[in-house]
Amino acid sequence: MRRLSAYRFSIRSGPPHVGSCIVRTRTETNNMRYYLLSLLLTLSLNPSIGRAAAEVAPVAGQPGSIGQAGTDFVIGISPYLDKSVKDEVYRSLVRLLVEDLPLNSSLAVYDAFDLKSITHVTVPNARAFNSSKTRANQFAPAIRELKQFLAQEHPKPAVSHLDFQSALRLPQFCDFLTENLPHPGSALTVLLIGSPLYQDAKEPAFSMVDGYFPSDGHLQATREQSVFGVAGETKAMTPLRVHWVYFGDPWVNDLHKERVTRFWTLYFDRRAGRLLTLTGDLPSALERFRHGSGDDSVSTRRWAVDSNQTKVEMLRINRDVELTDWLTSDARAETAQSPPATMVGPLKIGIRWKRNIDLDLYATPRRGAETLFFQHPRSPDGYYYKDHRSSPGREYEFIEFEAPVDIRELEAFVNFYKGSCPGGPRGEVRIEFDGRIYGGAFAIPASDGNLGRTGTAQQDCWVRIPVRKILKIEPTTTAGR
Q: Distance between CA atoms of 136 and 129, rounded to whole angstroms?
């Protein structure tokens, strides 16, 4: 009985004596049911004593009497769930297998990060499978495979600034289901168990950690332009009815939660599917999953893609207003007039402007290093930040180098990406370094944006920021890119 303690069921009044056959109340009936069910499931995980499980009396109740008969169910699990939740996930999924799946249905369970099958079961349309005992015996191999997956320590990818906690590669998993489970004429019912914040070692620029979320431009892009893009797809995509459960509080704040929820809702709409549930409560997610019902707070919201937001970029919600005071405040201290005391250290560089146009900041800490900008917002040296809430007339963005940089090697540019501005855009540069704020101005000759194109013919849409001149360490001249 030592194995029973590894995956205990909570029983309020404790297990009744094995020899007792008198049941006086509904509560005692339920306690007996769950005690015997836990015993069946625990024993079924051990092949050597599987026959002993068959000798236990059938559990009361009618499993499979509720749900969606004739339905194909799919569960996608993150291999990187926290240990503290694995026990709850295991017990809940075993109960789903043994009690709750309707007759004449199937369940496929996948690793939704590495895109691998974990297990698969089919519940025949046969009276014998109304018995939890029958299911526990027949599905014992599937239960073992599920337990082995959850018990295993899966090595996480090593990527700076990403921890892959409960990560799912959702776009790739959706493609995987379309490729391997074509479902013409009807939708697949899917339960996702993992974080709604996308992380991927192969696509780190599209990660949603630290308050980032994708712009609507991703929803209008092709797959070549964005991992979230579905525009131009000619192959029919399997429609998915999705219930999503996560653990803990992955959000920067409520606005971050709302923006990510909106994005995934619109993403599934674009794939001819529907996000019905997004919750941090596993029991309610499982209830909706097996009944096919949705969470009104998600499924009834009528969000629409902003067709004017075509730029493929990651926007960010800031947890701390003070993070941007050095750049956004109009009442800042007088600009520093003397050079810094050191040439190496952490640095922030930002731009602000007043016209309703789209300008982009690019910065590279040294030759050969990664350039930070809207399509590459994170690197080992720092991150790019653009607040989606900045209103027309008060636009700003900045790049923070958290790792020390040599200010003599730093290169930065501004591009006039989109819009029209007779006479060309003008704005302000601010640099925070060595405990002081330095300021300067920039001007771009072009009257119209060029969507970030480079080359000799595009120089009027670019301006080099004279970093060393602004920091008072040497005079420089501005030049195009």
A: 10
pLDDT at 70 over 70: no
Sequence-distant contacts of 268-271: CB under 8 A, at least 24 apart: 268/240, 268/242, 270/219, 270/230, 270/305, 271/174, 271/230, 271/237, 271/239, 271/240
Tokens of 113: 């990060």
Residues 27 and 373: their CA atoms lie apart, in Å, by 61
Cα maximum dimension of the chain: 94
**pTM for this prediction:** 0.69
Taking CA atoms, 422 is separated from 357, 391, 444, in Å, by 11, 21, 11
Which one-letter amino acid corresponds to residue 80? Y
CA distance linking residue 267 with residue 226, whole number of Å: 12
Report how far residue 438's alpha carbon sits from residue 250's, in angstroms, rounded to the nearest whole number: 35
Strand (E) positions, 160-306?
188-193, 212-214, 240-245, 274-279
**Termini Cα distance of the chain:** 72
* Average model confidence (pLDDT) across the chain: 81
424: left (phi over 0), alpha (psi -120 to 50) or beta: left
> How is residue 256 annotated by DSSP?
H
Give CA separation, 461 vs 229, 321, 351, 358, 411, in Å: 28, 31, 16, 12, 17
Neighbour tally for 49: CB within 10 Å? 13
Q: How far apart are CA 157 and CA 166, in angstroms?
A: 12
Pairing of the two strands 411-418 and 358-364: antiparallel
CATH of span 72-314: 3.40.50
pLDDT of 3: 35
Cα–Cα distance between 351 and 383 in angstroms, integer?
15
pLDDT of residue 235: 75
Nearest to 156 by CA among 80, 86, 246, 209: 80
Q: How far apart are CA 286 and CA 269, in angstroms?
A: 22
Please report which residue ranges of 152-223 form alpha helices under DSSP H.
Answer: 170-180
Q: Give the separation between CA 252 and CA 281, rounded to whole angstroms.
A: 19
Q: Cα(188)–Cα(72) distance, rounded to whole angstroms?
A: 6
